[in-house]
Amino acid sequence: MKELVEVITKALVDDPDSVVVTEREDKKTTILEVRVADSDMGKVIGKQGRIAKAIRSVVKAAAAKEDKKVVVDILDS
């Protein structure tokens, strides 16, 4: 899942080198924390959060295939 989020996020931003995705486990849930440059934050979130919602939907579908629960958090750098 981490690689999937990295690929999607790096394709969206102007500075792909600043994209950092960290993965941590919390009980039965995997939490993916995405950090991007401040200038790219709007590109990852999108208008009214549409891009962020789309990323979460793709990850949720991929996680459901593997019978896992994954949460994507987009954080300020």
TrEMBL record:
Q: Which GO terms describe its cellular component?
A: cytoplasm
> Which N-terminal stretch is annotated as signal sequence?
none
Name the GO terms of the biological process aspect.
cell wall organization; peptidoglycan biosynthetic process; regulation of cell shape
Q: Which CDD domains match?
A: KH-II_YlqC-like
Q: What is its main location?
A: cytoplasm
Q: Which UniProt keywords apply?
A: Cell shape, Cell wall biogenesis/degradation, Chaperone, Cytoplasm, RNA-binding
The subcellular location is: Cytoplasm
- Please name the InterPro entries in this protein's record: KH_dom-like_a/b, KH_sf_prok-type, KhpA
Q: Which GO terms describe its molecular function?
A: RNA binding
**Pfam annotation, one family:** KH_KhpA-B
The record describes its quaternary structure and partners as: Forms a complex with KhpB.
- NCBIfam families found in the cross-reference section: PRK00468.1
Function noted in UniProt:
A probable RNA chaperone. Forms a complex with KhpB which binds to cellular RNA and controls its expression. Plays a role in peptidoglycan (PG) homeostasis and cell length regulation.
**Family named by the database record:** Belongs to the KhpA RNA-binding protein family.
Name the HAMAP family for this protein. Answer: KhpA (MF_00088)
Could you tell me what this protein is called? RNA-binding protein KhpA
The scientific name of the source species is Dorea phocaeensis
Its organism's taxonomic lineage begins at: Bacteria, Bacillati, Bacillota, Clostridia, Lachnospirales
In the UniProt record, the gene name given for this protein reads khpA
